[in-house]
Automatic annotation (TrEMBL):
It comes from the Bacteria. Residues 1-166 form the GGDEF domain. The lineage of its organism: Bacteria, Pseudomonadati, Pseudomonadota, Gammaproteobacteria, Alteromonadales. This is Deoxycytidylate deaminase. It comes from Parashewanella spongiae. InterPro entries: GGDEF_dom (IPR000160), Nucleotide_cyclase (IPR029787), Rev_trsase/Diguanyl_cyclase (IPR043128). SUPFAM superfamilies: Nucleotide cyclase (SSF55073). Gene3D superfamilies: 3.30.70.270.
Amino acid sequence: MLYSWRKPAFRDTETGVYNHTYFIEAFNREWQKHLSKQQGLALLYLRTNIDEIPNMSPVIKKLSSKLKSRLLRNNDLIARHEKGYFTIGVFNVDDYGMKATIQRVTDAIEEVRLDAHHNYNQRFDCKITAGHCMPSICKQSDGLFIKVKKASEKLANQPKKQLEVIYWD
């Protein structure tokens, strides 16, 4: 089945980025391409923490807009999960490329954090978990999702730590 960016069923209605279901399908297609080409890829989880106020929408919209602007390549994916966290897929990337992407994302988060504080008097924080791997016939894309999700849950319980990077060799 062909999907279109313009079809609203595949976008998060609040932010305009892909929804998690579409992201998983697109990520799996990229996984298969990278398996045959022996290219690395990265998966980033961004776990947001926002003060509960009646309208969090401006901050979430600003974050998604900033994140989209920081992903430099057309084949990079960004999605928002129903539970509020963001996932980013970065393809054909080595360790240095992943770290550069993490830095751009971190800069975007810092801009949104400052904006949320100054314009909305709202506390905003975001923790990043990144996983890098080279697809192989011994690995499935689900395995990377599981590893990154577990690392993200562990990171959530560490108040002072903002970033966790894992490598699936």
